[in-house]
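In response to a reviewer's request, we include the raw inputs and outputs for one of the modeled complexes. The two entities were modeled together in a single run.
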Amino acid sequence: MKRTVAHTPRRGFTLLEMAVALVLFALVIGNVYTILGGTSKAMGERSASFEADTQARRALDRIALAIVGSFEDSIYDTSETPNSQAQINYVEYLGMTDTDGDGTSEHVYSDPMRIALTDDAGGEVTWFESPGGEAEKRVIWVKDVPPFAIGEIGANGIDDNGNGLIDEHGLALVKEGRSVRITISLRRSDGAGGFLERELSTTVTCRN
Amino acid sequence: MKLQGFRTARTSRRGGAMIAALLVVFAVATLSMIQLQLDLSKAREQRTAVDTKRAFYMAEAGLAEAFQGIASGKSGNVGTADEPARFANGIFFTTAKEEGLGRVTLTSTGLCGAGRATLSIVVERTSSSIASLGFFGDELVNVEGGATIDSYDSRQGKYTPPVIMVGSPPLVGAKVGSNQSLLVGGSSGTTNVYGDAQPGPSGVLVRGRNTTISGSTAPFLTANMLEAIVVPTYRDQGSVTTSPLKPIVTVPAGERSFSTLHVTALTKLVITGPARIVVADLVVDSLGELSVDASKGPVELYVTDWLALKSGSKVSTGNADPRSVSLLVSASQVVDQDGNGSLDQPVTLAATGALQGTIYAPGAAVTIPSSLQVSGAASAKRLTIGAGARMHFDTSLLEAGANESGLPRLVGWRLVELPNVPVVKLRFDALRALKLNGITPVRGDSAHFDIGVLPP
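The model returned the following structure tokens for the whole complex.
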């Protein structure tokens, strides 16, 4: 009972208690803030990197599948190593249909198609159907494609990045027999004053 | 009362710290959950991308399985959307659609995890039969001066001589070949091969004077095996010799075996299809006639010892489809067959007339004279096409029959839209879903459909 009576009047905190509590709280909050900030930044970087990887890979796959399904004879405007082109024209095989109703199917081919590095939105890979015609359709497959590949300084006639191609563009296509070597570069801001750069390459063979 | 006051003070002081701590924990937990969700989302996206690629390869496996099926005489249908075939950790089903002229569209859908892909190819059935090689010899082939070998398609009608106009593209389609050397043309006459003339891998092509070859003269990369004839066995019905008393003898449709079929002068032997006839000696004397009627079904004539269509004899096959008349000679021994003291070749074709069919004599030398016009194909151990002869290769023999296997030729490949079937619409692993429904997919090689059997 005496103990209760003795402590009852002390309802607040002493200055020392408050100071210690505030310091501890500040330390905890500071640490949490630092950890969360770091984590958030790392998450952002990883997310941007992942996004760039995914977009580059997706664009490369789309180009590759288009070329795989094209007629080798229809591919033109591509150069041989160490030169390359930033566009490819092709015709796709669309299977067989009985177009004249005689009971026997005929082969059907697509309108002319093109995949090209364009600069309408600051550097992008664009797919065209019937390019240049009245019925032209176009779809941007990926943005942030630089005018020259990663490591290429410019049109200086030198293979700056040592990949065997001279002055190749952000989209570089090289025909090697029935195969086409595709190289695509992506360069975009990382939001912290730097740039994220990706370069992917594959070689595919025309099936038709 | 004082005791209660003490407890109230303690409680209020503890609660403030707890709320602050809880806020911090809640914030950290929330951020952790967000990060976890993001990571899971990315992992899912990556897994989907990997599954899509696996599904693509699964669809390729389906096409390969169907391709193999067509090569071995199946329809090309493998599995169904309801009961797909299994391959590794995925499933596929392939549908085949006949497009005419031996072409088939194969469409294969592959499913693996959450990935789906559908691919389509068009293939063309080709024949693996020796008849598809045209006029072919295992050893030397000699096309004598003045001979002409051209081609036609019996599916478009009977043979009509081509009209050659100035400036028109060269005629092609004929086939002459050898596993060794090939002689085309001689010192006299104009020799024409309107198509390919190909020697064997180690052979040479020797052209005579005034010789035209409009197609390929590149040697075969590999030799073409002339396989031994498998002669069927039937009950022997003895010998049949025609006589002026009964000038026309008919061998009715069916499967029969004879020791001898001897057609004497001024008589006629008619073989009616569908028939499979095995005969040891088939002899047609001068002024005798051998007639094959394949209008009601194919005729296969096996000769095991001696085939002699003597000079002055006649052969006729009507307007038969060359694919429905087969003359198969397994004889290979040069012996005195008629006991006149001189050796006889196992095959003598000195008859006149027109043979619309195929001749196959892998163990014998065959000479086709100018008096016998062959529309179809001929293969022999050694083949001679006589001076001034006219041979017409039937290009329909290039296409495999329904029951014949041959490696198909790839015509086109493309990526197509996914089919609108329930299994494709599943948002998770289709293989697992099938197993949950009690369906265990079988392996691809056990899921083929025969020709004429439509998948349910």
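As requested, we also summarize the result in words. Residues 15-68 of chain A form the longest helix (54 residues). The mean pLDDT of chain A is 83.
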